[in-house]
Amino acid sequence: MEIIGLIGILIGLVVLFILALRGYSLLITGPISAAIIIIFNSMGFAGLSSIYLGGMGAFVANVFLFSLLGAAIGKYYEDSGAAVTVAQNMMKLVGADKSGSPMRIVITLTTISAILTYGGVSVFAAIFALIPIAKEMFKRANLPWHLSLIPICLGMATFTTSTLPGNPSMGNILPTQYLGTKLTALPVVGIVTSVVVIAVGLLYARAEIKKAQAKGECYEGADKAIGGQKVEEENRPGITASYLPMVALILIVFIGSVLNINNIVYMALITAIVLEVILFWKYIPDQKKTLTSTAANAMGPTLNTAAVVGVGSVVAAAPSFSLVASALATIPGGPVINLTAIGAIMAAITGSPTGAIGIVMQNFAQNYIDAGVNPDVIHRIASIVTTGFSAMPHCGGAVALLACAGLTHNQGYKHIFMTSFVAHFIALVVALIMVMI
């Protein structure tokens, strides 16, 4: 029966992948996948009503407020034009507005992407702000458009959402809710692995630029990319006003962590939003539309991710999954390696860093605590592995980035894979060595 159950899990996950890649809503494909797994594992109707919906509900309860606050920060930056101000200011600071140096362009775009996401702007909101800027920069450097995915992905979807201490991503926030850790958990490991990720990403970018230049490739392929909303300079916030909410958010997170203030991220996010409302008010053309879009931007991704988390909860509760758990338990290295393996599997299944770390925290984190693993280690390792191994072809962030850039998987996915998966894998090895010695 356990073998039949495992077959059911595989069928359910394959159905989830295929339907998701064909564009079906996860709110539909999630329950279908869960139902298949439940039937093959003889879990009964309770498996769908309590385990699947229970997993969804627990995830929404833990993340929705953070998603709402993060969506508000991103939407105010987008609608006011403050994101454009930050980007253009960074270009001037490093001379990228005048220089066509390929690596300078790459480093600048990486920095802009990192500042936006480390300052609280969600990945999905950052994409819309970054694509139009990247088009202008890559045109200036005469670089093929598909290479723009390297600095965009490196800056917004790697170290600022997984390794860098204090980052306000859900992959860094969720563990604090389950483990009682801080956003700055394991700071030395976080800083070292951030350097590793950045180094791998930039080395890959340099290699790809040389390869493209050797082939004689030039700026082309951006005709299907989104153009972005044109915002005149006089109709958007100035430099000081644009940076202030980000700076305040980051400072509050770090000071609060040092002072051991519980739930400091709430205070940081709310403070940033209040500053945005005050500083960006006159630059927002339609306050009602911005606030309405904020709610929609938060609800959609949260429910879609919850639908996948629910599937993960069913998988974890399936009797046949005990075979997998037992096999993982035999891997040499102890509970930390087991945590890494579980996180990698769940990330690859869901294609969502938030969904994967939600599953790990809900279903497995207490087991590792009981085994004597330091909660800070669980926090940082889980964040690194779930972010890296989520960079699958069906990952929502990857699909959105490719769509907004007007590129197919064949044209651009390898850059996302190398920049996120490979860079995180190397960083993960470094992190495991550091925590084990």
Describe, in plain words, how this protein is organized in 3D.
The chain is 76% helix and 0% strand. It has 437 residues and is mainly α. The protein has one domain (2-436).
Layout of helices and strands:
Elements: H1 2-21, H2 26-40, H3 45-80, H4 82-94, H5 102-118, H6 123-141, H7 149-156, H8 170-179, H9 187-215, H10 239-258, H11 264-280, H12 287-317, H13 321-329, H14 335-350, H15 353-363, H16 365-370, H17 375-389, H18 396-405, H19 409-436
Global structural class = mainly alpha
State the domain count.
1
Strands, total number: 0
The shape is globular
Rounded to the nearest angstrom, the radius of gyration is 21 Å
Mean pLDDT: 86
Count of alpha/pi helices: 19
What ranges have pLDDT less than 50 throughout 5 or more consecutive residues? none
Q: In what range is the share of β-strand residues?
A: under 5%
Distance between the termini: 42 Å
Largest sheet, strands/sense/barrel: none
Assign a percent range to the helix content: over 70%
Order of helices and strands: HHHHHHHHHHHHHHHHHHH
Which tags fit this structure?
437 residues, mainly alpha, globular
Give a nutshell description of this structure.
The protein has 437 residues and is mostly helical. Helix content is 76%, strand content 0%.
